[in-house]
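The freezer alarm interrupted the setup, so I double-checked each line after restarting. Inputs confirmed:
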Amino acid sequence: MIGRIVSWWLACWRQAITRDLQFRTQTLLIAIGALVDVAISLVPALVLAQTARTSENGWDESTAVLVVGLFTLSTAVLDTVIGPNLLRLDSAVRTGELDLLLIRPVPAFLALTLRWVRPAEATRLLVGLALVIGALSMAGDVPTIGGVLGCLVMMALGVGAWTLFWINASFLSFWWASAEPVQAIVGALREAGQYPGAAFRRLPMLGFTTLVPALLLATLPAQVLLGGDLGGPLLGGAAVVGIGVAFTAVHWRIAIRRYDSASS
Amino acid sequence: MSVVISTAPRPAGRHRALLATGIALFGRDLTVTLTNRAWVVLLQLGAVTPPVVSLLVWTGAIARGATPPVPADRIVTWFVLVAVVSMVTSSWTASFLAEDIRTGGLSIWLVRPCPALAHLVANNLAEKAVKIVVLLPMVVGLGLVFRRQVQLPTDPSVWAAALGALVCAGILSFVLDVLIGCLAFWFEDVAGVQGIVVLAQRLLSGAVVPLMLLPAEVQDAVRFQPFRFTLAYPLEVLTGSGTAELADWLALLAWTGASLAMLALVWARGVRRYEAAGA
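Predicted 3D structure, all chains:
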């Protein structure tokens, strides 16, 4: 079964890359748009960092750039693999297109969340990496191997937690006939993840690490990379993912039971 | 298909007929929008979420000792009100107009006895009429949460000036959007241009970060560009932040007038070039 899923997903990637190569101008525009988007997201983080130098938990431009860099890496993965699927879920449920996914010889949940891939978005991985390296060299910090590994684990948990949150928000399409604007809300909430932890008070910090886990995408990984404590965030992140998986499994079963194919 | 523009003298009562047509189109779009109530509610939640996130971030940073270049009250007031101004000055016409030009759907509106753009104006106003009813309670709620820091002007003349700036901003934003849609008279796909303009607007209008928080040199550099007047300027007038001098008012009026003149020119040339699909 796993082999079949892997070969199916590789075929999805092959098809996506072929499509991107066919529509080269469109792919180039997407890639340029993604790069400009990263540049724009640097502006508020840098402006805030300038005013926060004097604060009790002060941070500077290099910390701000580091968080934006890690945020870019995490969101690049999300927007390459998960985003293209969840953005079309509303339409798929409304028009009955979901039928075509349900009848495929792969688990329907995987087909729903991984079928479409957008390789052009992955260009942001390079920009994110460049920002992280630039930020670390600007600060003169050399992270330890443990810090890098801890940061990667935290980012993996963050991407997982956000994926689950995004999936559950997108599943509102099963309950509402016009849930498309939910994507704008999810996108706006995700933006909270591009700021250092010192920008948040206790309650928003709690909310953005549990119910809406935006800070798991980059803020907490950045803290770990800079030598912060790993145990607490790791345990908390794993708990958020665990609860998210259980909740999503239940939500999926209820939602798919409610789905009455529009084409039937 | 060539379109002949009538030069016959306008019949008496034409203005009344136009008004009746406008009201009918407005009523139609109002009904359509009201049938999608949940969609409107979610859309407005989406509009209010970015300022809420910004408020949480900025108030959190300030509470921990950050020292922004302007008083914290002004920043909070800005973020509480930005969703309303952003909605009132928003426009979503370009892609629909471009689609109509590409597929020939525009023909229907060219042969009707009303301006071909009337339905787009009616759609814009009707949707906003519904959206404002949904959005205002959310913004009032947000204002109540941050009531200690929200500073609204008490002078009616400031409100009147802000309203004037808001109306001009709404017109400017709509006309710029229609101009982008009009590019479909010459190009098959305007999505790329639209995407670039949206990105520029996000940054230069103050939607991403209030312009008053940018370094002074940057503020000077972006002071007279059109996107500032589509969002930041009405807020600057209302909150008393940034610059709202005579030169800014003149620039706002100049941009609004110039964009309307440009639209008249582009539309006349575009319609002459228009070839309805299937003709």
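Quick read of the result. The CA atoms of residues 42 and 116 of chain A lie 28 Å apart.
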